[in-house]
Amino acid sequence: MSKAIILHKQGGPEVLTLSDVEQPTPKAGQLLLKVVATGVNYVETYQRNGTYSVPLPFTPGAEAAGVVAAVGPGVESFEVGQRVATAEATGTYAEYALVDEGKALPVPDEVSDDVAAALPLQGMTAHYLLNSCYRVEPGQTVLTHAGAGGVGLLLIQLLKERGAKVLTTVSSDAKAELARGAGADQVLRYADFASTVRDLTDGTGVDVVFDGVGKDTFDGSLASLRTRGMLVLFGAASGPVPPFDPQRLNAAGSVYLTRPTLNHFLQNPQERRWRAEELFSAVAKGKLNVRIGARYALADAAQAHTDLQARKTTGKVLLVP
């Protein structure tokens, strides 16, 4: 037997309960991961509260780092005892979880367990945003929201390494300090940020906005773009954007809007390895700092969700079995 968080019904954080479960057995092409740390992500609050439908009973979690405890038939790329991480496992709010061989990422010796668990989902999100969704070039000006969040802190650093000018929004002085520490050129508050962006860009607007907030920032994000700029709406922390008239894109300057998701930028093992290897290499070289904002025991998953939704956390939230 082992321990896992089991969701028997959808609702508030209190429905996340620690239970005894049978240890999973890897099937063909799978690894059994002994979890050392699990990344907590906002999507799991939607799975818990009923915004997203999930089959019950359900164990949340897709991101984790750990050690290969067993391999299923046909596995050739990994062996027992090897350190791996993933953003695409199932049921990682647990002591043991299964991951497909092609979705597992080797972890270099120079990368700690906590960082290995914290980096895959948010790191590969930041990577695809600035490399594949909108290819940011040196000298361009970028607005990214929630600069003290997990994606935000990574994205700021990667954008500065690329040579971009980075504007970001935050909700408090403490978060502003974190965003500046990551390298942001200008840190703004959410109130009337579009007007401030126009002032800072001499009325031109930014080349691209990376918006993971959604409903509360969407209008301002559109108003912040230069002519033919792009709004990359990759999340909805404040709620989904209501339906809108596409004519608004014309009125905003023939701007572009895209709504990507990470899965579509992890189409094969080669693409996963490329993104993960660049991120792990940046960490190993000291060019990318991964902030662990909070660590909770697995049994305290409910408190982790409560704090995450209350925006009391910065950086990455981890569960530790």
Structure in words:
This protein is α/β, with parallel strands linked by helices and 321 residues long. It folds into two domains: 149 residues, Medium-chain alcohol dehydrogenases, catalytic domain (Quinone Oxidoreductase, Chain A, domain 1, Alpha-Beta Complex); 140 residues, Rossmann fold. It contains ten helices and 15 strands. α8 links the parallel β12 and β13. α3 packs across α9. It is globular and about 60 Å long.
C-alpha geometry: globular
The main pleated sheet reads as: 7 strands, mixed
SSE string:
EEEHEEEEHHEHEHEHEHEHEHEHE
Structural class: alpha/beta
CATH superfamily membership of the largest domain? Medium-chain alcohol dehydrogenases, catalytic domain
Number of strands: 15
Low-confidence stretches: none
Distance N terminus to C terminus?
A: 14 Å
Number of helices: 10
Sheet-strand content, in percent, reads 25-35%
CATH fold naming of the largest domain: Quinone Oxidoreductase, Chain A, domain 1
Domain module count: 2
CATH class value of the largest domain: Alpha Beta
Overall mean pLDDT: 96
The residue fraction in helices comes out at 25-40%
